């Protein structure tokens, strides 16, 4: 029985971000992607208002037309939207792994690249196309050690995987459409995939909230530090971060909430890492120390431990530690500017 455009649009409107219309059309990979990203972060769901007729037409192709589809080695055309989706979903899967699975052994060498590769391959398998999973994962495993330990490592790993997936793209082999299979087994597989994705993240959020916030704050701080040489771009990025709260203030007609959220963001961005806490101990400072207090303590300790004035054997090593500690804390306490 053919699929109805009316039903597809109704499911798109009622539960589109959860992939109900893709489930109806037998596009299980697309449905799973929408379940895990809430409709492609909302953007993909909106875009589909003009794509649904093509999806329905594809689902209604009969077996003869399916068999007539070219099986030559000519790959399908490169789609910029698909490629951008691969990169974004790869980063998204990597971020979720960093939040929920970073305590596992060999995380940065094995777990993280496999999670990023799974996200990229999921986007590659949407619709009639697919890619070489083995080569995509291999690209992730090769790239991962180069950026070992970095909170921004999902970005280059996802780029490498997306390029590899695009180079090895191909049409899916002819097979029985998923829409003709039984619904219960399909829902069972989708449910297992959803649980595998969400269970580690849910555990981390509900049982390790502090670590989650620390990671998020480190990510935001790392992103802002990239633009230290372009203050205007840094300010634009901070403005985007605060945009939801500015909208809330506009709707409520008050400014108090904006100031409160600004203060919260500033505190979040200034959470101390383990290295920074060690630097505070070296300079004999508390966590609430200001930049002026840090500088004052640094100058006093430099006078005490400078090798030219201190004959102690440990003077030079201590002097280096003091200087490194000051550099770490100075980078953290560069003032944030809000427009």
Explain what this protein looks like in three dimensions:
The structure is a single chain. With 339 residues, the protein is an all-alpha fold. The chain is 69% helix and 1% strand. The chain contains 17 helices and two strands. A two-stranded antiparallel ribbon has the order 1-2. α3 packs parallel to α11 (183-207), α9 (133-143) packs antiparallel against α10 (154-167) and α13 (231-252) packs antiparallel against α14 (256-269).
Characterize this entry briefly.
It is elongated and about 90 Å long. The chain has helices at 5-15, 20-24, 28-41, 43-47, 52-59, 63-68, 80-100, 107-124, 133-143, 154-167, 183-207, 209-226, 231-252, 256-269, 274-282, 291-305, 315-332; strands at residues 129-130, 170-171. A two-stranded antiparallel ribbon has the order 1-2.
Keywords:
DnaJ homolog subfamily C member 22; single chain; mainly alpha; 339 residues; two-stranded antiparallel ribbon
Per-chain topology:
Layout: H1 5-15, H2 20-24, H3 28-41, H4 43-47, H5 52-59, H6 63-68, H7 80-100, H8 107-124, E1 129-130, H9 133-143, H10 154-167, E2 170-171, H11 183-207, H12 209-226, H13 231-252, H14 256-269, H15 274-282, H16 291-305, H17 315-332
Helix pairs in contact: 3-11, 7-8, 7-10, 7-11, 8-9, 8-10, 9-10, 13-14, 15-17, 16-17
Function: May function as a co-chaperone.
Pfam families: DnaJ (PF00226), TM2 (PF05154)
Keywords: Membrane, Transmembrane, Transmembrane helix
